[in-house]
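Predict structure. Chain length: 585.
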Amino acid sequence: MMKQGMVINKRYRKIGLFAGIALLAGGVMAFNDDLFQISKNLDVFASVYKEVNINYVDDINSAKLVKTGVDAMLDGLDPYTEFVPESEIEDYKLHYVSTQYGGIGSSIFSRNGKVFVSDVFAGFPAQKADIRPGDQILKINDIDLTGKNNDQVSQLLKGSKGAPIKLLIKRDNTPQPLEKSLVRDEIKQPNVSYFGMVDGNMGYIKLDKFLENSASEVTNALVTLKKNNPAGIILDLRSNGGGILQEAVKIVNLFVQKDVEIVSQKGKIKDKNFSYSTLNTPLEPNLPLTVLVNSHSASASEIVAGALQDLDRAIIIGQRSYGKGLVQQTFNLPYNSLVKITIAKYYVPSGRCIQALDYTHRKDDGSVVKVADSLIHEFKTKNGRSVYDGSGIYPDIYIKQEKFANVTQALVGKLLIFDYATVYRDTHAKISDPKSFSLSDADYNDFVKYLADKNYSYTTSSEKLLNNLKTEATKEKQFNDIKGEYDVLKSKLLLSKKNDLQQHKPEVKQVLENEIASRYYFERGRYETNFKYDKELAQAIKTMQDKVQLASILKGEGNYKVIGKPVLAMAGKKAADKDTDDDDQ
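Prediction complete.
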């Protein structure tokens, strides 16, 4: 029996060996087929390019042709996988890498073929030379700017640190052009654009992006704020589009204990799968913490907000975040070009991925849809609160985002807010501290008078609906029947529209005060003047002052047990459960 068993085992082992060889051969064949397809497709691409380049009736830009082809190839993947040719490398770095350059510390814009200063940054040469927003730049180093675009002017303003630069500017209330001699300084765009103390003795940090040194800048801000013995910390990530994943982990580590997993990334290539944990003792593990987010908070911002929510360390306040749960890596290509490729998805501590758009399963027309509610899954935070994947980070406390009225948008878009701030700065030598600055009724009435001869035409939502009614009624040949009522409604709407500047006075004042304050206190002025209008900030202060509510949210008591429950998915589940019950009867 034993001998027979040995024979059988040998036979099976031999069969197993053949099966292994067959599988290996199959794998090699598949690998060779992949190589053949790659070689074939590259050959086809190169041949098409060659024939077009030789035979096309007109001269072609070969670099542009290849870029168009590569872009089209990547366009079917996701918007984050992109090819960057050598000619665009510097622009790419400006968006994704911390930048330092020699300049004067101002930004510009073009209007009617003329170049104007739009912003001046505190502490840099332009501000020290009393160059102001609203100034028109006529010449740079005796080079006339007529006909030059923004990029060309920016290049003229930039140069090596310590190099002299001469500007000829025109100011509205000055009869003769002013000549300004400056020396270029090193300009570095910070990640933390503002930090300071706000109402309730709360520390506030505004983080704009997650580039190099962002964690270091947040650390420095936090150390400074702690000297004031704050009652809590507010981390503002609104409209922060993200950046470097590792910087996000370091920032979470400021508030979370050592050796805690913050985020993991998983992709097709196992070597690129990583888990990132906190490495250091936290700087502030106990103070109440809130994080502000909105629909433009993405990527690394969502890692910070999601991790702090999953670990029940912070209260998230605002609107649902963007929903970008994809990780990119750059790969160098020949001739100083590169490609940025989505290599993985990331997962916050509860195990959820917050990616909202499903690029893998596009519609037949190529359009992208959100992850279906029926495919959304429930996860648990450290304290057992329910959170969900597939749809960004939903805040613990939701604040409805108010949209500015059409009149306000028109005043901003037509630069009338900007222009009046220039006039105001020319006629007022100083204003009060930005936290207390407020336009008086007399000042606001002066602004209304300033607008009397200005064109800021706009269409209200009601007018659009009325115009649609006329269009549809005309199509159906019914307009003549309702023309009398239509004319009465139109007249009433026009009369109401004339009152828009008073009806929407609070928000018009808000943007006007913001722009005016920036003329005296620069970036700090914008933030501090706006604090009194900031609903999310007010809610953060109120929540951290209410110790009972703070504890209830983090423990998941009552209404705080479930965060961002997908209604449609739950409705679908209930319907499915009902169908099952019916089948059983």
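Summary: The two ends are 57 Å apart (CA to CA).
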